[in-house]
Specification:
131 residues, mainly beta, 4-stranded antiparallel β-sheet, 48% strand
């Protein structure tokens, strides 16, 4: 069982930054068998993967956000983060934290960020970028 609560969204001008935290509650026996991801969905568009990270810190990013966004985690606090810099109008979306409990070590480096692979989701936090 995993519970996820993301926050930190808001409005920001283009070129600005936001950091989104996601507090995760994992059962102890599942902690080493997971990947965490950030997804986003704009109105009228499909939900798309933004970034993912496994239990030991391997990370992957969508090309559209690479070099601008950073995914990280604080294992002691069981918190996932998405640091978003140089925000663009195209980054406007609802951002979701997600967990995949079927993810082995290193999988994040080779697998695509697929919505279908993530079985646990937060409620989302809105990010709006304006000019």
């Amino acid at each position: 069982q995993v519970q996820l609560v993301e926050s930190g969204g808001g409005s920001v001008q283009a070129g600005g930054s936001l950091r989104l935290p996601c507090v995760a509650s994992f059962s102890e026996y599942t902690y080493s068998n997971y990947c965490m991801g950030w997804f986003r969905q704009a109105p009228g568009k499909e939900r798309e993967g933004v970034a993912a990270i496994d239990s030991v810190g391997n990370a992957k990013y969508a090309r559209s956000v690479k070099r601008r966004f950073t995914i990280s985690q604080d294992n002691a606090k069981k918190t996932l983060y998405l640091q978003m810099n140089s925000l663009q109008l195209e980054d406007t979306a609802m951002y979701y934290c997600a967990a995949d409990l079927g993810c082995s070590g290193g999988d994040v480096l080779v697998r695509a960020l697929r919505v279908e692979d993530f079985g646990y989701w937060g409620q989302g936090t809105q990010v709006t970028v304006s000019s």
